[in-house]
Fold:
Amino acid sequence: MTDNAIQNSSSDTGHTGGASDAPTGSSGNLIISCKDVTVSFGDFQALKGISADVYEGEVVVIFGPSGSGKSTFIRTINRLEEHDGGTIIVDGIELNDDIGNLDQIRSEVGMVFQQFNLFPHLSVLRNITLAPQKVRKMGREESETLAMELLERVGIPEQADKFPSQLSGGQQQRVAIARALAMQPKIMLFDEPTSALDPEMIKEVLDVMGELARSGMTMMIVTHEMGFAREVADRFLFFDEGEVVEEGTPEHFFTNPQEDRTKLFLSQIL
Amino acid sequence: MNVADTQVTRIERSTIDRARKWARANLVNGTANTVLTLVSVTLAAYLIYTLTRFVFVGADWEVVDVNRRLIFLGRYPKEEQWRIWPPMWMVMGLGGLSYGMLSRGSLRDLAWLGAAVVFILAFLATTTNGLLFGGGVLVSIAAYGLGRLSIGRPLLRSKLRLVTIVGWFLVIPFAIILITGFGGVKPALWGGLLLNVLLAAIGIGVGLPLGILLALSRASSLPLLKGFATSIIEITRGGPLIAWLFIARFVLPAFIPDAFETDPIVNSMIVVSLFTGAYVAEIVRGGLQAVDRGQVEAADALGLGTFNVTVFIVLPQAIRAVIPALVSQMIALWKDTTLFAFLGFTDALSGGQAAYNQAAFKGSQIEVLVFVALLFWAVAFGMSRLSQRFERVLGIGVR
Structure:
């Protein structure tokens, strides 16, 4: 992939606004490259040819109206949804039907879900240590030390021996972040991580995510928290009806959005 | 002195008050409820009176006393009786250990266990048997103590957990090897309650894992595996157990080459395991469907891979959701083991029938049947209580 490809990444969506905004975190290498990605559910085409690139260390926020395909798109990056057209290359590996590739990519890409999806039958500690032990073949002591470090990092080391049901929503989501980080992923995907939380718990999760962004993690975040997004994001992608309508820096979106659909949506949520 | 007195009175009064309040709320609130209460109390009193009168006055328990061996062991040879004790001690020890690790002994459970011990001791006429059983009870109590000790000691607990799990896995093979091996007793000579217990244990021990495998196969996306599992399940469930037992006993041998000919009771055990497996498979399949899709997605997203996702994430949650149904199936199997009487084996029930058909004990059906019923009920009730306790312990991690 050359820089040319990035410049043209969303040219097929016909917008002009974002192409000149060079990704601010682009010091690193290209780590996710999507070209003309399509996904269909039966007759309904959820993604109509998405092209987007992400560089190492970049934080990309995806937003748009519900049903616009933003969650579907982020889920194709670790193949929780299979794309039926176009190519997705993650860390140099193309996503296809080859199962070996798939597990390798999934262990490099952490994911945080709207509904947390913690394993209810396992303690908080075990939720975090299971994958490092089974996939990375890490020893028990080593993985538990790592898990405690991560719980420390997300601010709830005292909850290690509890079960998910004994935690608040915000605490559960922070455990979910620690669980994903335990695989030492190169990329973290966040699919509306605060949408299922009570308002008073949103901040504690966003704080953890902000700290993660500042530490240099490559992140793709689907969120409606525009204030937070403006603070941490290097780049925004605005989705509507399965397409990237507009792309650019946060400043571009807040001061000078180009497309009518973008302006309309921003006026509704801000 | 005075202060203590008033305190006691206060406590007593509050207890009485509470009882009175409870009675008012639950027994005599409204005319309909009061009538219902009166009817139930009268009925219960009458039943308890007749049963007690029968047990202590009317009944002549000699028939049970004389035929104890027949009911408990059938035609099992007396000189090989020692082989039964070690597995029994193992079960008692493991039972005590598991109970101790799972929960604090409740007074009610203790009362039931005590009653069971007294009951069994009363029927182990010889001193030797009584001592051997008493030793088992001591082992059980010691194991319970050890289990309690492990609470708050993670290292000891993880070791004990390993011992318990491995122990429960080994107990059935151990029992079978010790009973049949080293010039032991052929399955054809197993009998009485021992036969029921062994059949149920084998049915559960083989049927449960088999059922889980069948359920996973049926839920798999591989068409051949799925089709194979589905046909086994549907064909097996299509016939009554008794029909399958007859087929195993009389039809199958005609098709099997002589070289592979097995003991008829072994054939029947295979059939029972398969039958149980088919029902377990459908129960577990229900559990698999109850597991939230997000669980699999989250596990997939960690790169755990199909095997790990199934073993560590999906199955534990699926089985936990269907424990009541599984235990119900186990209890059904426990009682279905009496069907083996139709194949000519002497289980506890048919041993009992043989007892009251003896000329000396004409007309003593009630004594024998009440006794056998009590044996079956005690085991079924024990299974039910144990599963409730297990559910409560597992409940910690459930949403």
User: Anything to note?
Assistant: Residues 160 and 251 of chain B are 47 Å apart (CA to CA).
